[in-house]
UniProtKB/TrEMBL annotation:
Positions contributing to substrate binding: 54, 259, 311
Binding site for Mg(2+) 3: 30, 75, 209
Biological role: Catalyzes the ATP-dependent phosphorylation of thiamine-monophosphate (TMP) to form thiamine-pyrophosphate (TPP), the active form of vitamin B1.
Additional information: Reaction mechanism of ThiL seems to utilize a direct, inline transfer of the gamma-phosphate of ATP to TMP rather than a phosphorylated enzyme intermediate.
Name of the protein in question: Thiamine-monophosphate kinase
CDD domains: ThiL (cd02194)
Binding sites annotated in the UniProt record for Mg(2+) 4: 30, 45, 75
Lineage: Bacteria, Pseudomonadati, Pseudomonadota, Gammaproteobacteria, Pseudomonadales
């Protein structure tokens, strides 16, 4: 199968025109065309995923299709952006029709679930690598940055943390229990918190998605905002499945393991007060921003630079 046939069969259906989107021209021309409505800003980000580094070797292609787009879409949620469209550059070691069928099915399900239409892409041969660029929009000036946290802000996180990190211990489990299946689901099918993006944009002072671990990602907010934080370990939300599986180690997964794709969000106290229950009920307040630098967990300095805190792509797990 040639490149054009491959694209026509497996990827063009993901670019079929939807009525409401900003995408004027999808796959098939030299470029895609996106019209940004007056008064809105384009928010975009690119992610590269390499087999054996960002996902396991011989990973199920339908999971990979979903996960790749979920991971990219999570960055839009962190900015408070509404999803619009994405491009995909796919490097494949060989043309395996069944693999492509399953991959594109997973990608298509994610594309529909997240409201992200395929705008275009490229395929080439080489070690399995995916690069996805996602486009979203916000009202002009409305993008939520990492740099907006101020002393006194509350720090909150969505969902429960640590599930996807714990799932890595069970990827080849032959007979997974219900608890193991529950944490595996977080790893295989993460849900970017696009459902919260609109309200985060309206009420948050700063936000980030938790891709590399709570301590590492909160650390990025603190560094960008030139502030510190105090968090209480007994407030960090853990799933019942994770607690049962990992006991006293569950908190460590929640603090230090990545791939959760939940949000960590800061709010000025008055913004939190005025935020609607629909947002607050999805979040757990775990601490507060301080003027003095440093990240303190239960009063103990986590030493942002010195202590292992998530994943560094060039140094690996420290
Ligand atoms: Mg991110």
């Amino acid at each position: 199968m040639g490149e054009f046939e491959l694209i026509r069969r497996f990827f063009l259906p993901l670019g079929e025109r939807q009525e409401s989107g900003s995408l004027m021209l999808g796959p098939g021309d030299d470029c895609a065309i996106q019209r940004i409505p007056a008064g809105r800003d384009l928010v975009f980000s690119v992610d590269a995923l390499v087999e054996g580094v960002h996902f396991p070797r011989n990973y199920r292609p339908d999971y990979l299709g979903w996960r790749a787009l979920a991971v990219a879409a999570s960055d839009l949620a962190a900015m408070g952006a509404d999803p619009e469209c994405f491009t995909l550059a796919l490097t494949l070691p060989a043309v395996d029709e069944q693999w492509l069928e399953d991959f594109s099915a997973g990608l298509r399900r994610a594309s529909e679930a997240f409201g992200l239409q395929l705008a275009g892409g490229d395929t080439t041969s080489g070690p399995l690598t995916l690069s996805l660029q996602v486009h979203g929009t916000v009202e002009q000036g409305g993008g939520v940055r990492r740099s907006g946290a101020r002393a006194g802000d509350l720090i909150a996180v969505s969902g429960t943390l640590g599930n996807a990190g714990a799932a890595l211990d069970y990827l080849s489990e032959p007979a997974p229990s219900a608890d193991i299946l529950a944490v595996l689901e977080h790893y295989h099918r993460p849900w970017p918190r696009l459902d919260l993006a609109g309200e985060v944009r309206r009420y948050a002072s700063a936000a980030i998605d938790i891709s590399d671990g709570l301590l590492a990602d909160l650390g990025h907010i603190l560094a960008a905002s030139r502030v510190g934080a105090r968090i209480a370990s007994d407030r960090v939300p853990l799933s019942a499945a994770l607690s049962r599986l990992k006991g006293s180690k569950a908190l460590n997964y929640a603090l230090r393991s990545g791939d959760d794709y939940e949000l960590c969000v800061c709010f000025a106290p008055e913004s939190w007060e005025s935020a609607p229950e629909s947002l607050k009920s999805q979040l757990t307040v775990i601490g507060a921003v301080t003027a003095e630098p440093g990240l303190y967990l239960d009063g103990v300095d986590c030493g942002l630079e010195a202590v292992p805190a998530g994943y560094d792509h060039f140094r690996g797990k420290s």
